[in-house]
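Quick start: read one record
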Amino acid sequence: MSNAAPVRQKLTSQMDLAVEHLKRDLAGLRTGRASVALLDGIRVDYYGTMTPLKQIANISIPEARLITIQPWEPNQIKEIEKALANSGLGVNPSNDGKMIRVPLPPLTEERRKELTKICKKHGEDTKVQIRGFRRDANEELKKLQKDAKLTEDELRKAEQETQKLTEQYGQKIDDVIKKKEQEIMEV
C-alpha cells in the first residue's frame, strides 16, 4: 500500500459526503409531487425545544399532491402550522383539529425555472467544495513528497488519480442535478 492511499481514502469519503449532502438538499426542493423529504428541514417548537417535525408527528402521503401530518399530541397543531408557514415552502396547510393537510399546488412554469436555477447553484457549490478537497489532498501529497514518503513519480501519479476522482465526482454531481431538473420540469 502506497503512502498516498490514506489521502485518497480521505478524499473519496469527503467527496461521497458532499454528494450525499447535495442529494439531501435537493430532496427538500419542491417538485410537483408530494414527498416526505420536503418536510425534513422543518423544526417545531416542542415545549421550548426545536424538534424535527418527523419526531413529533406521523407524516404520510395519501395522494400525489397531498401531505398529511398527524401530531401525536393534538395540542401541537398550532406550532406545526406556524413552523410550516415559516418554512418558505409556500404551502397553505389546513387542519380539522386532529390532522393537518398540506395540499401542494401545481408549480408554475416560472417557479419551475427558478427551482432549476437553485438546483444548478447547489450543484456548483458542491463542485467548488470538491475542488477544495482536491486542493487539500494535493497539498497533503506534496507534503508527503517533501517528507520523503513519496517519490516524484508517486506524487505525479497520485495527483493524476486525485484529478480523475474530482472529474468522476463532478460527473456524479451533474447527473444528480440533471435528474432533479427533470423531476422539477415534469408536468
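The chain has a mean pLDDT of 87.
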